[in-house]
Write a structure and sequence with these properties.
The chain has one helix at residues 7-20, and strands at 36-37, 47-52, 91-95, 101-108, 113-119. It is an alpha+beta fold and 132 residues long. Strands 1-5-4-3-2 form a five-stranded antiparallel beta sheet. A hairpin with a 5-residue loop joins strand 3 (91-95) and strand 4 (101-108). It starts with 6 loop residues before the first helix and ends in a 13-residue tail after the last strand.
């Protein structure tokens, strides 16, 4: 099972990855600043899972979203709040070629399954507590 990453650990990993990231890589062909359906062109063999934001001791993770201001789920500037949906269901993956970090999860609806992906930007990570 993947190692659980809290917001502080994710932030540290993201900052290190941003310092090491190569200028260009095949993983950046499609902009992934906001949530996207995983492109078919993305070569999954160049990624490795480095952790999870899904707490193992929380079988009923919240579906509440943290979207302050005018951001929405698809916004490129929406905060990455690990305790909130969909981040609390994400695996953290790293490109083995350029070191960039990505969040991935599977969105499931009544008649579909959609693998979603978003690039991690350290400036967007927020450690926001869930309301009581």
């Amino acid at each position: 099972m993947a190692e659980y990453l809290n917001a502080a650990t994710l932030l540290e990993l993201a900052q290190r990855a941003e310092q090491r990231a190569a200028a260009s890589c095949s993983c950046t062909r499609t902009p992934l600043d906001g949530w996207q359906s995983q492109p078919l062109s993305l070569d999954e063999t160049q990624f490795e899972e480095v952790g999870t934001l899904a707490p193992q001791d929380d079988p009923e993770a919240t579906f509440s979203e943290y979207l302050p201001g005018k951001t929405n789920y698809w916004s490129a500037d929406a905060p990455i709040a690990p305790r909130y949906f969909p981040y609390n269901r994400c695996a953290v993956w790293q490109c083995t070629l350029c070191s960039r970090l990505y969040l991935r999860y599977t969105e499931g609806g009544g008649y579909f399954v959609d693998r979603r992906i978003r690039a991690v930007q350290s400036a967007l990570i927020e450690d926001v507590a869930l309301p009581d």
